[in-house]
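FIELD: query
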Amino acid sequence: MWSAIALAFGLAMDATAVAAARGLGAGRSREAVVLPLLFGGFQAGMAALGWFAGRWAGPYIAAWDHWVAFGLLVAIGGKMLLDAWRGGGDAEPQGPATVVLALGLALATSIDAAAAGLTLPLVPVAPWIALTLIGAVTAACSAAGYLAGGLAGKRFGSKLGVLGGVVLIGIGVELLVRA
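FIELD: result
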């Protein structure tokens, strides 16, 4: 059971960091609920896809997952940096995530879960328990990250949009280098 919990927390960290970056603008209670649910759902869903795909999709997922995640995170982080730069640091907080942005972030943070799903048969619990843990832990950590980002944004101001963009780009680069 502990290995399933550790896997869930490991997979949740990228989504938590992205949720914290989105939370920097704060004040959007709907987004504070929607993003964690999307992140948890996508993490569990992609892990399930990896589990179902098994050996056939493994090499394809492993060959491209880091590039897709890198591209999405750098594009979104770059946009956050550009928005912060254009606003001179005193711009209004970022608007709520569009459907496309929210789905893009959920996809970008969950691609590695597909590859991790290939290992689910090795985890000493039923796969549905592991998938439930992955989704629930990701949602909970993402909600906490979003709220923490919101508190930091209120305390330090909208200049933290730059930090959020840098964090997203850093996660993308880290995924690429780690691969």
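FIELD: remark
Confidence is low (pLDDT under 50) at residues 88-92.
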